[in-house]
Write a structure and sequence with these properties.
Elements: E1 4-6, H1 18-22, E2 24-28, H2 29-49, H3 58-82, E3 88-90, E4 93-95, H4 97-131, H5 137-162, E5 168-170, E6 179-183, H6 187-213, H7 222-258, H8 265-268, H9 271-293, E7 299-301, E8 311-313
Parallel strand pairs: 1-5
Antiparallel strand pairs: 2-6, 3-4, 7-8
Helix pairs in contact: 2-3, 3-4, 3-5, 3-9, 4-5, 4-9, 6-7, 7-9
């Protein structure tokens, strides 16, 4: 792994690794520690609130693992910072504040690389839970734990062996080092963009279905009319439930997407964000699966969500 050293102060303007510098922000070590500490507290609070069913889904198991990693990293960084004079030893390696800057960049890269695999794995888990015969609780927990460990290992190997990641450190004495260069996360903005496009498609589908249903159906079109009515009903209910719960966060994400603000990569992956993604994936998959598989019932339910109650009412008269 190559390391780019940034010259100190005045000579910093002559630094020729321009592309790397554009993707980084300079944050004090104290702010990094406070940010990680606050992230840990929020993560464990959300895990506690979902304790009754946290291990029944992949996203829940991964949230617990993420909280544990954040806690371990925060304790390690705090210990290194307290012993910033270099007297702290670990496996014959003298740890200094340089290692905080190096490790926080590596951690941020791993978190950024995990964004899309976690979304895909959680979507597959939700799809299988809703549309297929569910596994026993113990078997499901084993599968979720195995996938979680595998994702962590494969992502770490990717960052160290296959990615073009180059850590950036200041060329100053570790006694004088007070700030770290931290990379932005671009993956979360990609997920936000896809999220808003999906919500737009759902809203457009609901509007188009409404106009279609205004036309009186002929006898040959009764079945298609009933299916369209049911899908429109689910789409509208999903949109209302999701927006009622997450509207403030959606507004914040829209502002984040429009303004040129950077998100530190070590904060991009957190349990609050995972809870939001979990609700979003439940909404999308419910729109796709429930009308096709559960129209025979008057009520269809999807897996438990501590923040959204995903229950839909179907009109059986519309389907007869």
């Amino acid at each position: 792994m190559k390391i780019a050293l940034i010259p100190e102060k005045a000579s910093m303007r002559k630094w020729n690794i321009h592309s790397s510098r554009q993707q980084t922000m300079n944050i004090s070590i104290t702010s990094i520690l406070l940010g990680l500490g606050g992230k840990c507290l929020l993560s464990w609070l959300l895990v506690f609130l979902q304790r009754k069913h946290i291990c029944r889904s992949f996203m829940g198991v991964f949230s617990v693992s993420l909280s544990a990693v954040d806690t371990a990293v925060s304790l390690l960084f705090t210990t290194i910072h307290i012993h910033g004079d270099g007297h702290l030893m670990l496996l014959d390696l003298r740890l200094t504040r340089y290692h905080i800057c190096l490790l926080v960049q590596i951690l941020g890269q791993i978190y950024s690389a995990l964004q899309w695999p976690v979304v895909i794995a959680a979507a597959l888990d939700q799809f299988c839970t809703i549309s297929l015969q569910p596994l026993p609780s113990r078997a499901k927990w084993i599968v979720h734990s195995f996938v979680t460990v595998l994702l962590w290992l494969l992502t770490a190997l990717y960052v160290f062996l296959l990615s073009d990641f180059v850590p950036v450190l200041e060329d100053v004495s570790h006694h004088l080092l007070q700030q770290c260069w931290v990379f932005h996360t671009a993956q979360i903005l990609q997920v936000i963009t896809l999220l808003f496009l999906t919500l737009g498609c759902v809203a457009l589908h609901a509007v188009c279905s409404t106009r279609l249903l205004e036309k009186p159906p002929v006898k040959e079109q009764i079945t298609d009319h009933s299916r369209t009515h049911s899908r429109r009903s689910v789409a509208c209910q999903v949109l209302c439930i999701f927006l009622n719960t997450w509207a403030p966060l959606l507004i914040f994400l829209a502002v984040l997407l429009l303004l040129p603000l950077g998100i530190p990569s070590y904060l991009g992956l957190n349990v609050a964000w995972l809870c939001f993604l979990n609700s979003f994936l439940m909404a999308v998959i419910s729109c796709v699966v429930c009308p096709a598989s559960q129209l025979a019932r008057s009520v269809a339910a999807v897996p438990a969500d501590s923040l959204c109650e995903w229950r839909f009412n179907f009109s059986l008269a519309a389907e007869s």
